[in-house]
């Protein structure tokens, strides 16, 4: 089985920087699944996914990264959506490894909950810090696409939408509190460790780390590779 991972191109070099593609990058690395990565410029995502026969998302953006193409005995099948990809990789890899992205029955529920809280609470301040900087790490056509689409979505220029950076950092410090509490409790728990479930990493950690990486990579706007 050959896997091709579709990530989003940036001037930071061969790194995952988007909070969504980071999750897939972590799944592939954690499970040590051999794969090739193809970095797509934003305006090329839809064309690429259509050519692979990926059905459009019924809600929201039709074609997104992460996506993977899986080649098995000359047949190719491809899918998008980070959670669907994580489940697929975990299931298909189970015979090769004792590592699991969802290591126990509660891991999927925990991941869904962390994703929902991140989307509802953490996304707003992190996006306001990261999105104005993402503009500067994109390739020229990605940059043009990103500025145009986000300006349309927000109904105003990106910098106006982002507002005061200091307020966004203050809100982030406040909103990250629940995750700090969860991680401190896990560290002090019976199986103490740095992950939401203590000593065992799982998809919930990958969701949270995606946001930290987004903040970090968005700040690498000088075009130097740190991969
Ligand atoms: N629910 C999707 C969200 C993926 C997503 O929104 N990806 C963004 C990059 S962070 C994207 O590909 N956007 C394409 C566009 O803006 O046209 C997932 O979890 O994979």
UniProtKB/TrEMBL annotation:
<dbReference type="InterPro" id="IPR036282">
    <property type="entry name" value="Glutathione-S-Trfase_C_sf"/>
</dbReference>
<feature type="domain" description="Glutathione S-transferase UstS-like C-terminal">
    <location>
        <begin position="111"/>
        <end position="223"/>
    </location>
</feature>
<dbReference type="Pfam" id="PF22041">
    <property type="entry name" value="GST_C_7"/>
</dbReference>
<protein>
    <recommendedName>
        <fullName>GST N-terminal domain-containing protein</fullName>
    </recommendedName>
</protein>
<feature type="domain" description="GST N-terminal">
    <location>
        <begin position="17"/>
        <end position="92"/>
    </location>
</feature>
<dbReference type="Pfam" id="PF13409">
    <property type="entry name" value="GST_N_2"/>
</dbReference>
<dbReference type="InterPro" id="IPR004045">
    <property type="entry name" value="Glutathione_S-Trfase_N"/>
</dbReference>
<dbReference type="InterPro" id="IPR054416">
    <property type="entry name" value="GST_UstS-like_C"/>
</dbReference>
